[in-house]
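Residues and backbone
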Amino acid sequence: MEPILPPGTGWIEVICGGMFSGKTEELLRRIRRAQIAGQRIRLFKPDIDQRYHPTAVVSHNNTALEAQPVPNSDAIYLLSAEADVVGIDEAQFLDMGIVEVANRLADEGKRVIVAGLDMDYRGRPFGPMPYLMAVAEFVSKLHAVCVYTGGLAHYSLRHASPDESTVVLGGKELYQPVSRKVFCSLRQRYA
């Protein structure tokens, strides 16, 4: 549900969850609704995320909107002066400064919508996301479907990658949405 607050009131919304839970799809839905309402929007993504398109936010379902790739959180602040609504995808890949940037934008009366993974492939809090969730007025936690049990998938299990780096960009070729029970039983195999 989208918040209804007086005009000029800023706030932060966080859309989080595991991979394939629909975070980007939900971000794009909210941005489109803001466009329909005649609001000025700016949509951003970390410039390291080139998986689907260099200058668009694209969901796993191929829904897309043009976006500004940025190298860091400061660029988001500098490029958002004229916006009413600021959308940020894949926030877990941004620096910790995104928390201060989101707060400043909200303090200036902007609606800030942030989407990202709340946990990394090891099941640990991911980058700035826990801090964004803490300062947000609204948090939507989405779940995928476990590929093994058909139940709620809260974790993103990385498979088929010898790389132990926290940030390894990929899709279904590298990650599977899994339940807690499956994650606990399989993580040793891939950790």
Observations:
- Helices lie at 23-36, 73-79, 97-107, 129-135, 180-190.
- The chain has five helices and twelve strands.
- The two ends are 37 Å apart (CA to CA).
- The first strand starts at residue 11 and ends at 17.
